[in-house]
Specification:
single chain, three-stranded antiparallel beta sheet, alpha+beta, disordered N terminus, 13% strand, two-stranded antiparallel ribbon, 38% helix
């Protein structure tokens, strides 16, 4: 019985030492363990009955490096910046993903939009009309300078080109 108590006291002192808690264990002259004290603050913790604690064998073992768990991933709403488009349409290509760093002017996605396609077509027509009317104005100025065109026709050509 005495050896069993000594072994338990020694195991508790060893376990507390391995756990990083400084412990001083002492035996009285008769060989019975007295008590263990935590050296960080002796008034905080004392162990008077080590026989109440079960012994456990200390061993090393490999633990898995991954942990499988169920859960969900949700974005942080406060750190998101909402991107809006001026035209409606269907996204056909995403060029960045959630969490990617982006720079000013970088294309984030491609949109196929009938509205944008029509607007681009209208722009191309307007640009072609403007080039044609600019040539007409140049021609009207040349003819006016040679006296072959009335001033009223020149003013009309200037007005039409300005509207374009």
């Amino acid at each position: 019985m005495r050896n069993k108590i000594l072994l338990r006291a020694a195991a508790i002192c060893g376990a507390l030492f391995l756990a990083g808690i400084g412990v001083s264990c002492s035996d009285d002259p008769k060989g019975a363990p007295t008590k263990s004290e935590v050296t960080l603050d002796p008034n905080l913790y004392t162990l008077e009955h080590p026989d109440l604690f079960k012994l456990a064998k200390v061993e090393t073992r490999d633990l898995p490096s991954t942990l499988n768990a169920n859960g969900g991933v949700t974005p942080d709403i406060n750190s998101m910046i909402h991107v809006t488009s001026q035209g409606s349409g269907r996204v056909v290509e995403l060029k960045v993903r959630l969490g990617d760093y982006v720079k000013k002017g970088q294309a984030l996605l491609s949109i196929h939009s009938a509205d944008l396609a029509g607007a681009f077509s209208d722009y191309q027509k307007a640009a072609a009309d403007e080039r044609l009317l600019e040539k007409g104005l140049d021609r009207a100025q040349l003819l006016y300078s040679h006296g072959a065109l009335a001033e009223k026709d020149l003013q009309q050509a200037e007005d039409t080109e300005e509207k374009a």
